[in-house]
Amino acid sequence: MSNTSNTSNTNQGPVTVLGLGMMGTALATAFVKNGNATTVWNRSAGKADALVEQGAVFTAGIRQAIEASPVIVACVSTYEVLNELIGGAAAELKGKTIVNLTSGTPEDARALAGWAEQHGVRYLDGTIMAVPQMIGLPQAMVFYAGAQEVFAEQEELLKPLAGSNVYLGADTGAAMIYDLGLLSLLWSSLAGYFHAVALVQSAGVSAEAFTPFALTWIEHVITPAIPRSAQEIDSGNFATEVSSLGVNKAAIEHLVATSRQLGVDSDFSAAIQALIERRVAEGHAGHSLASLVEAFKQG
Ligand SMILES: NC(=O)c1ccc[n+]([C@@H]2O[C@H](COP(=O)([O-])OP(=O)(O)OC[C@H]3O[C@@H](n4cnc5c(N)ncnc54)[C@H](OP(=O)(O)O)[C@@H]3O)[C@@H](O)[C@H]2O)c1
């Protein structure tokens, strides 16, 4: 894995951006600001107007857009849409490079890489771990996966998009696996916060009043538990002097029961309760919460 950190860039080569949704517009804007000759294409032409005012060139046909540059950065809603869009442009793409920053699944990425190889197109898969407003800023991170030489060729060109450009390796599906892992972390941690707020609101406490306690809890209890869990998971040693599954089994019963009693949806905590109970039933009551990873792997 390699990680370069810099948004300034001396590669001002031509680039085409396919897709001018919220994210594609941010990507194209970053290239224009960097001084790259930027050609843009979007199904709804009107979305290109502001970019054209800044110096981008809009082409009404996708084939023309592809012909305009040796590197095509794609960011549309799904791989299905992208496959459809470029499926008829294999001849124009031959010998060029597609950097695909559309989100999907690892299998979507591997299938498109296979199609690209069949048609003589160089392919780099990627996923953006940032919102459009962060594009071009040092804190933006993009994961890339695919042939190392294609990443090495395009690394300079891609620098204006993010401060952190992380190459994950030759498996084209790797960027999407990391993306989905981090999204799982995002949705489950925020859902935990929303569930907590629904509980405390039932006692008349506002979200804002509760939030400083949530932040302290995250900082001093949850954040340190993550590297500690990683060590336990990688070593396979789940012995704990912090908090056992047995203790958590009793505590989560209170959470599920109280949620139900208060009319707060309990499905989210009941799903975690089921994982804990399964591990305890399998004889792991003395193990740490990190051993739940084994329950996830039995899905
Ligand atoms: N926004 C974010 O915070 C964010 C963060 C990380 C990753 N991403 C990923 O970036 C990708 C784009 O997201 P976005 O936020 O830019 O979405 P968006 O604003 O909804 O834009 C979707 C883009 O896909 C195009 N599109 C959709 N269906 C099409 C079709 N049938 N034919 C041609 N073009 C079609 C749209 O064209 P029209 O303009 O003509 O509708 C538009 O360019 C997604 O895979 C998303 O998961 C987004």
Automatic annotation (TrEMBL):
Per the record, the domain of life is Bacteria
Residues crossing the lipid bilayer are none
* Residue ranges of every copy of the 6-phosphogluconate dehydrogenase NADP-binding domain listed in the record: 15-169
| The UniProt record lists the keyword Oxidoreductase | yes
Q: Does the keyword Oxidoreductase apply?
A: yes
Q: Which InterPro entries match?
A: 6PGD_dom2, 6PGDH_NADP-bd, HIBADH-related, HIBADH-related_NP60_sf, NAD(P)-bd_dom_sf, RedAm-like_C
Q: Family, per the entry?
A: Belongs to the HIBADH-related family.
Which named protein is this? NAD(P)-binding domain-containing protein
Protein's organism: Streptomyces pyxinicus
Q: What is the lineage of its organism?
A: Bacteria, Bacillati, Actinomycetota, Actinomycetes, Kitasatosporales
